[in-house]
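Action item from last meeting closed. Structure (318 res):
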């Protein structure tokens, strides 16, 4: 039987630091960080930038992958987007009761297998793919398929920091395209916190069906970078690495999708306590009522002023 493809799958609620974690894990010489590969087919269509600075069609990794004629097996780029809601509504029962995948989803899993195999061929010596798509439907598909050995990282972050980040309109500039995006979020804090609770609870509940599951706090990664990353490497069956701090600035990643910070070079991981002061009182109250118990379960204090949160100090490298 063919060996399964090892995948570190980062899941969790948006703005919990998954792009950063993917970039940091990419430091490992045996791992390939790919970012939110879930929407890869759309990135090709829109020719979106890769974290290396080039558009995906011109990137040395994604561009060459697309020229699939170069590979012995024909690769079609899997489009998972159209399946995800279908999977969740119809196939969650199949997942839980261990029923077979539909032929359509089985085929999608096979396309992902070919894609990952092609990636591994581009990087001889690499043996683990880090996928930070976060999407639970995709996670369940990879789990259910026999092609993958999935190591699930459930990334959590102080819910107040997540709420603050989601509520704050961010003006992000994609330099390469010379266009500006408004990534504001019009959802109410009640809606956001409810989603944060439901998604994290769902992952925690369903995690008992996973072969390999590890919950990781974003703040712990910032606090003890080398120890936290090595814990994850150990969990994924990878060797330990040292002097991680010095390796961070030498990153040359090829992440697609996710947070705009992937275009920046990480210099240092340090505190950013802005949300402690800036999260307004009504958001704070709504959060503590709905999300407080789960936040406490994850080890965060009710009084967020006791908490310090880190952010990334970076500068652009192109
Ligand atoms: Zn690239």
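Sequence:
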């Amino acid at each position: 039987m063919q060996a399964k493809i090892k995948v570190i799958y980062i899941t969790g609620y948006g703005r919990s630091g998954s792009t950063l974690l993917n970039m940091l894990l990419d430091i490992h010489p045996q791992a390939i960080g790919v970012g939110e590969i879930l929407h890869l087919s759309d990135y090709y269509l829109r020719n979106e930038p890769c974290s290396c600075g080039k558009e995906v069609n011109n990137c040395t990794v994604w561009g060459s992958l697309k020229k699939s004629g170069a590979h012995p097996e024909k690769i079609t780029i899997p489009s998972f987007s159209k399946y995800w809601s279908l999977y969740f509504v119809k196939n969650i029962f199949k997942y839980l009761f261990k029923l077979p995948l539909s032929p359509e989803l089985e085929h999608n899993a096979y396309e992902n297998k070919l894609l990952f195999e092609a990636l591994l061929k581009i990087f001889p010596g690499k043996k683990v793919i880090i996928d930070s798509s976060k999407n639970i439907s995709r996670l369940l598909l990879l789990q259910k398929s026999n092609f993958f050995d999935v190591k699930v990282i459930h990334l959590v972050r102080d819910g107040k920091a997540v709420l603050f980040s989601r509520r704050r309109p961010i003006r992000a500039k994609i330099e390469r395209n010379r266009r500006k995006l408004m990534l504001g979020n019009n959802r109410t804090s009640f809606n956001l916190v409810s989603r944060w609770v439901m998604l994290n609870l769902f992952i925690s509940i369903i995690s008992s069906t996973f072969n390999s599951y590890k919950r990781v706090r974003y703040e712990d990664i910032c606090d003890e970078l080398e120890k936290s990353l090595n814990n994850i490497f150990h969990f994924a069956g990878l060797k330990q690495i040292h002097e991680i701090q010095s390796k961070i600035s030498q990153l040359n990643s090829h992440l697609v999708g996710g947070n705009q910070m992937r275009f920046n070079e990480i210099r240092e991981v340090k505190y950013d306590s802005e949300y402690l002061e800036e999260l307004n009182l009504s958001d704070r109250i709504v959060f503590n009522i709905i999300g407080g118990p789960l936040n406490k379960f994850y080890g965060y204090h009710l009084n967020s002023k006791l908490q310090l949160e880190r952010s990334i100090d970076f500068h652009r490298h192109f």
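Note appended to the action item: The CA atoms of residues 103 and 267 lie 46 Å apart.
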